[in-house]
Structure to design on (765 residues):
């Protein structure tokens, strides 16, 4: 057995052992607050077992292993539906950026370890009402205030802000230069005076995203994590941290086996749906698509193991998988007819077709909309021209509103 | 079999691409469409010379003992270059049938010739819309075949065929020496495939499999050929995606390259997705050749490759506008090939059913 296989076996055994305490059954019926509390205990258990911060340096509480071990663990972990969602953003982006760019190293170390143990949560304050895809068009501003800065403005779609202790934020410090050049990157204390968090209820009924308002929020200059005017580059670092994460060719919806089972159970015109050509075609097409993504992901893992850089085709996963999941979920509801009406808003999108269907649009928008991803493929991979950008090179305060 | 290509395999891909790009041109391919019974001799000479015909056959019979991965890499390049000879796939299919089911004498007789490319092989299982009929049109009685095999790819030039026939209600696979068999060329939209009807009239044949074993072996042969064809389709789709991209960055309208319009750039980005999914499925299927899940992997490769090539042919012409539908630019060569490859080795409808039967646990 290779070292990696041994690691996988160890990870799989540990995950199995956590199922009674933290698996789907243990979470059933919990309120979000109770589930978060359970999640913090799970994160602590993960830390104690040596599976938190797998590819982070040991001096920051990590395990000092590679990216491949991290996604290997995640591949095992995602089989069980543990309450880890509250820490995904926190440990995925803000905390690694803090580790890289935070100036007070003792403070950084303390925060990183607490985040790894699930004691503290960080959020990422990027998107604004005026735009999410056009990050550099943001309007929240920070003005010099004594030796520090004063922040005013509004962020939106901030995941888990209502439970966050800290956040990283990009703000405009100079409106007189082109939009990318006037931004600066800071961290903020989410409990500071002037910070107001309002949860947003989403279409599916849950409220994991928020509006966050900043009214004269004062921070000292040691909160700054980029040169003044150099915030965009750090923001890009954040977004590029890990192109290859543990992916799911089901688009974080139900496995295709569940659709096949459903098609065997229900009837169309008195005959099993599994014998209906329309249904068979969808099963076959979805299988071929998912098998392709699985092969791309397997190949990427093997390349990383061999010390090579995987190809750009890994960027297809979210685009292809989530929109297919959306359509397949619609068809799964169709198959059930009026029996599909009973709706449990707390059901998991991974094993409930209605939940998968109603939450699918979020997946196609968050983290790069389908259209943005197509632009990225066209421009970065295929070398096609950028879209026309009338605001290019114009000082921010002269861009027509 | 790893899905990461080693240095030797990478060399096969780059070398075959180099040779084919140097030797195949649109100007040679266009006239083949308007004659019947001619194929691109340059390609076939190259295939023999480079040992591509021998690649996946056993060393004991003049082969190179490599496998589906290597043959797939060649087929991908053949697809890119629209190489106009169908024998690489059909010869491989016939040779595999003989290797898997034939006697030593049959192997001795046919495999060295198929490996060197001196002999051309064909596979005739289909009866029109049914790629693998339970009751084949051909009949077999005491070692003689009767009936017409319709539209057999490579049939016009083949020396030997593996056919599926009905012997008193039971399917059999039989090996037929085509010397002296009457054949008539089918004038097709893709003439260099050398498609022909074969008329058997008491033609001597050697049965190599009988009953369910014959049907199972036929499916295995068809799947092996389908994976080779899927590579060829993926190569064609990849070439079209690049042609579309190159045109979109140079052709201007309304003061900018047409590739700056999202309706065009997103179409090409979608092609990229289809090509990469097809490629990934091909790589996976080629590596599963000897495994229990091979038929499933082959079906997925075949479905995604057909979708990629069909869509790329459709969209590449559309992106070109008027010039795209001219004879001279030759995009119709890909359109034609995308359709002929979609019909050979079982169409998408067939592979969808094969796949779902397996996913639903209805097939062994």
């Amino acid at each position: 057995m290779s070292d990696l296989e041994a690691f996988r076996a160890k990870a799989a055994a540990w995950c199995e052992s956590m199922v009674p305490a933290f698996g789907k059954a243990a979470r059933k019926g919990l309120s979000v607050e109770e589930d978060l509390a359970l999640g913090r205990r799970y994160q602590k258990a993960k830390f104690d077992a040596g599976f938190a911060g797998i590819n982070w340096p040991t001096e920051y509480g990590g395990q000092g292993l590679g990216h491949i071990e991290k996604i290997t663990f995640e591949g095992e972990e995602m089989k069980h539906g543990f309450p880890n969602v509250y820490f995904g953003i926190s440990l995925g982006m803000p905390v690694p950026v803090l580790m890289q760019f935070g100036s007070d190293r003792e403070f950084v170390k303390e925060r990183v370890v607490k985040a790894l143990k699930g004691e503290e949560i960080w959020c990422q304050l990027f998107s604004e009402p005026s735009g999410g895809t056009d990050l550099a068009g943001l309007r929240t501003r920070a003005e010099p205030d004594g030796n520090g800065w004063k922040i005013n403005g509004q962020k939106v779609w901030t995941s888990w802000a209502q439970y966050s202790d800290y956040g990283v934020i990009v703000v405009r410090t100079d409106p007189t230069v082109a939009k990318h050049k006037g931004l600066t990157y800071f961290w903020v204390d989410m409990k500071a005076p002037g910070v107001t968090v309002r949860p947003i209820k989403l279409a599916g009924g849950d409220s994991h995203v928020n509006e966050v308002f900043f009214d004269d929020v004062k921070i000292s200059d040691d909160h700054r994590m980029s040169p003044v005017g150099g915030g965009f580059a750090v923001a890009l670092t954040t977004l590029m941290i890990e192109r290859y994460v543990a992916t799911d060719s089901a688009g974080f919806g139900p496995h295709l086996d569940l659709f096949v089972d459903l098609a065997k159970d229900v009837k169309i015109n008195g005959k099993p749906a599994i014998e209906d050509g329309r249904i068979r075609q969808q099963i076959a097409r979805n299988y071929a698509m998912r098998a392709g993504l699985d092969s791309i992901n397997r190949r990427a893992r093997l390349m990383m193991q061999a010390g090579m850089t995987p190809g750009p085709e890994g960027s297809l996963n979210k685009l292809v998988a989530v929109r297919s999941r959306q359509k397949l979920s619609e068809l799964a509801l169709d198959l059930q007819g009026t029996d599909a009406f009973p709706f449990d808003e707390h059901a998991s999108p991974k094993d409930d077709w209605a939940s998968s269907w109603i939450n699918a649009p979020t997946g196609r928008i968050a983290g790069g909309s389908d259209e943005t991803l197509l632009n990225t493929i066209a421009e970065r991979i295929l070398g096609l021209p950028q879209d026309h950008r009338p605001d290019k090179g114009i000082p921010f305060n002269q861009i027509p509103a | 079999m790893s899905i990461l290509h080693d240095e030797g395999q990478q060399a096969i891909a780059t070398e075959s691409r180099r040779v084919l790009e140097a030797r195949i041109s649109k100007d040679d391919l266009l006239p083949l469409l308007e004659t019947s019974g001619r194929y691109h001799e340059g390609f076939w000479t190259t295939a023999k010379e480079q040992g591509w015909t021998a690649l996946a056959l056993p060393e004991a019979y003049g082969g190179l003992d490599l496998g589906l991965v290597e043959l797939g890499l060649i087929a991908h390049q053949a697809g890119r270059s629209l190489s106009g000879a169908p024998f690489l796939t059909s010869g491989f299919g016939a040779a595999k049938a003989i290797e898997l089911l034939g006697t030593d004498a049959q192997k001795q007789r046919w495999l060295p010739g198929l490996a060197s490319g001196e002999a051309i092989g064909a596979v005739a299982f289909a009866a029109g819309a049914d790629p693998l009929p339970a009751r084949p049109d051909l009949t077999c009685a005491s070692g003689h075949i009767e009936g017409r095999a319709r539209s057999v790819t490579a049939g016009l030039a083949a020396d030997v065929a593996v056919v599926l026939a009905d012997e008193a209600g039971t399917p059999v696979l039989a090996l037929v020496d085509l010397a002296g068999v009457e054949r008539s060329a089918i004038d097709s939209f893709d003439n260099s495939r050398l498609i022909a009807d074969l008329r058997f009239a008491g033609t001597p044949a050697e049965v190599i499999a009988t009953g369910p074993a014959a049907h199972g072996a036929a499916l295995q042969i068809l799947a092996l050929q389908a994976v080779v064809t899927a590579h060829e389709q993926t190569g064609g789709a990849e070439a079209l995606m690049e042609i579309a991209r190159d045109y979109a960055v140079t052709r201007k309208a309304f003061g900018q390259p047409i590739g700056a319009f999202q309706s065009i750039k997103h179409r090409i980005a979608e092609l990229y997705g289809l090509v990469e999914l097809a490629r990934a499925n091909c790589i996976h299927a080629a590596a599963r050749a000897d495994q229990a899940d091979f038929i499933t992997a082959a079906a997925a490769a075949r479905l995604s490759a057909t979708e990629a090539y069909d869509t790329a042919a459709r969209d590449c012409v559309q992106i070109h506008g008027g010039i795209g539908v001219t004879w001279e630019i030759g995009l119709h060569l890909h359109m034609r090939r995308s359709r002929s490859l979609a019909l050979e080795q079982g169409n998408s409808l067939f592979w969808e059913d094969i796949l779902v039967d397996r996913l639903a646990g209805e097939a062994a």
